[in-house]
From TrEMBL:
It is found in: Cell membrane. This is Putative membrane protein. Keywords: Cell membrane, Membrane, Transmembrane, Transmembrane helix. Belongs to the DoxX family. One of its GO terms (cellular component) is plasma membrane. The keyword Transmembrane helix applies. Its main location: membrane. It comes from Congregibacter litoralis KT71. The chain crosses the membrane at residues 16-37, 57-78, 90-109, 121-140.
Length: 150
């Protein structure tokens, strides 16, 4: 087996690795900073102009965001509707960046708010890769596709 064949045989693991890493991150980010310690996130959202557009309190918004992050994270871990979950996560990232950017800009590039946004850039990129690749070989999506005979 030459180097190119070895590389191709290992490429099948890329969607799995990305799904597990990003899925765990989304589940963690939904549970710990939003459900267990929501106060800093609620305070940040209450300073954003976006909350004025929503018919709910900042605390309710953070709760709904947490549930969405946990659900889409679990979907990625399982490889279930991977593209849909990745699209939802990409939209949440865009919403977070747009909503928090003005706060980060007021406090400067070294602020905690700016650092929160920095993780979202590569996370957005990984979600774009998963939108393109789908769940990969080791996913419920692939199992469902094969059981249908497609």
């Amino acid at each position: 087996m030459n180097f190119d064949n070895q590389l191709l045989s290992k490429e099948k693991y890329i969607p799995l690795i990305l799904r597990v890493i990003v899925g765990l991150l989304w589940v963690w980010m939904g549970i710990v900073p939003k459900l267990i310690y929501p106060e800093p996130r609620v305070a940040m959202v209450s300073k954003s102009w976006v909350i004025d557009l929503l018919p709910m309190s900042p605390a309710h918004f953070i709760f709904i965001l947490a549930i969405a992050e946990i659900i889409t994270g679990v979907m990625l871990l399982l490889g279930l509707f991977t593209r849909l979950a990745s699209i939802a996560q990409a939209l949440m990232i865009i919403m977070i960046i747009v909503g928090v950017w003005n706060i980060a800009a007021m406090h400067g590039i070294t602020s905690p708010q700016a650092h929160l946004l920095m993780k979202d850039i590569p996370l957005f990129g990984i979600n774009m890769v998963l939108i393109i690749t789908g769940g990969g070989l080791y996913s419920i999506d692939n199992w469902r596709k094969q059981s249908k005979g497609v």
